[in-house]
Amino acid sequence: MIEYRSIRVGLLGAGSVGSQVARLLLEHGDELAHRIGARIELVGIAVRDLEARRDVDLPRELLTTDADELIIGSDIVIELMGGLEPARTLVLKAIAAGADVVTGNKALLATHGPELYAAAEQVGAQLSYEAAVAGAIPIIRPLRESLAGDRIERILGIVNGTTNFILDRMDTTGASLEDALATATELGYAEADPTADIGGYDAAQKAAILASIAFHTSVPVEAVHREGITGVTAEQVESARRAGFVVKLLAICERLVDAETGEEGVSARVYPALVPREHPLGAVRGANNAVFVEASAAGPLMFYGAGAGGVQTASAVLGDLVAIARRHVVGGPGTAESTHAEMPVFEIGRITTRYAITLEVADEPGVLERIAHVFAEHDVSVEQLQQTVSEGSERATLVIGTHQATESALAETVASLAENPVVVSVASVLRVEGAL
């Protein structure tokens, strides 16, 4: 029987993920010890309420409400409380006390990441956070390590399972957003207050984290352009389906060069977009997540799997824990964050994209000419146009697909169209992403 030294682990939080992490540590301790060369000793679990019902029956003697005391007695601290405070304060205390930290807290990293990274680097501690983006899918470590020597050009990600479930249901059943959201809530995919998901806030936090790693640049969440799916209609989804597209909420992180100034920068943005059905992201169904990486040398890479779930996300937490614990065995400082490039973060108007615009217009002579004139005024060229006229109606429907242009030019074009007297309404505007 091999005798292993013990590495003390303190767990902050025993929710759906934290309770599964505790269960796996207790059930698979021997197996983990063989992998690490040291025994993981779960010394305590800090919770707000000792009597709260939990997904897993945890040993009562491990539960405590004294997070500070638990931190002091731990070599590695796992933070799964969520939210900004007291999570930020406790993580900083853990680092200051000489502990390494594993966290799955996307909001904390997106808001206070640079402060936490600097604190960890100053003392040689390791801060790992694979579980913060895309649940069980390994994407943080590949970006930080496997692709660290490559030049990442672009990331397209479906990183919120709730919105993907909703949009997928709208696509496959014809349901309205409201009905699809109700189903997601009933099945447990959506919270009672779904604002963070359908408003794009959750995806924006993850986009900030991905962009910071991919481009070695601090990208604050406030710099991420955010649009949710609340304006997506069943008619838009059906129109996309007929045209060979699917609507997805995308987190897009991109390396850009400003055409006018030659300045290199990055863009991070979240919005619903049309994705070709034959694109790998177009086939991501249900509540799954996927991240599509375009790298200069490695080429296109796809990471796909469960983006949420207690036991699935616990897998990512334990992966970080094992890696950190191995470092405790062999020695050496933690891996610091690489943000030395510090490129500027471009605002949305400087990106280049394509639009699909649906207009309701008067059915009269000269309309197409006047519409074309609006596009020409803003140096936006039309790639394709479809016109539908209902019998007996005085209106026509135009679906216009543009060539690539700057976001600012496309937005100005749409604004001018809305003011044009021959345009009854701008029924739909969606960006087109992921062209193969």
From TrEMBL:
Residues 356-431 form the ACT domain. Its cofactor is a metal cation. Its EC number is 1.1.1.3. Pathway: Amino-acid biosynthesis; L-methionine biosynthesis via de novo pathway; L-homoserine from L-aspartate: step 3/3; Amino-acid biosynthesis; L-threonine biosynthesis; L-threonine from L-aspartate: step 3/5. InterPro entries: ACT-like_dom_sf (IPR045865), ACT_dom (IPR002912), Asp/hSer_DH_NAD-bd (IPR005106), HDH (IPR016204), HDH_cat (IPR001342), HDH_CS (IPR019811), NAD(P)-bd_dom_sf (IPR036291). It holds the Pfam family Homoserine_dh. One of its GO terms (biological process) is threonine biosynthetic process. PROSITE patterns: ACT (PS51671), HOMOSER_DHGENASE (PS01042). It catalyses: L-homoserine + NAD(+) = L-aspartate 4-semialdehyde + NADH + H(+); L-homoserine + NADP(+) = L-aspartate 4-semialdehyde + NADPH + H(+). NADP(+) binds at residues 12-19. L-homoserine binds at residue 191. One of its GO terms (molecular function) is NADP binding. It comes from the Bacteria. NADPH binds at residue 106. The active site is at 206 (proton donor). Belongs to the homoserine dehydrogenase family. Catalyzes the conversion of L-aspartate-beta-semialdehyde (L-Asa) to L-homoserine (L-Hse), the third step in the biosynthesis of threonine and methionine from aspartate. This is Homoserine dehydrogenase. It comes from Agromyces terreus.
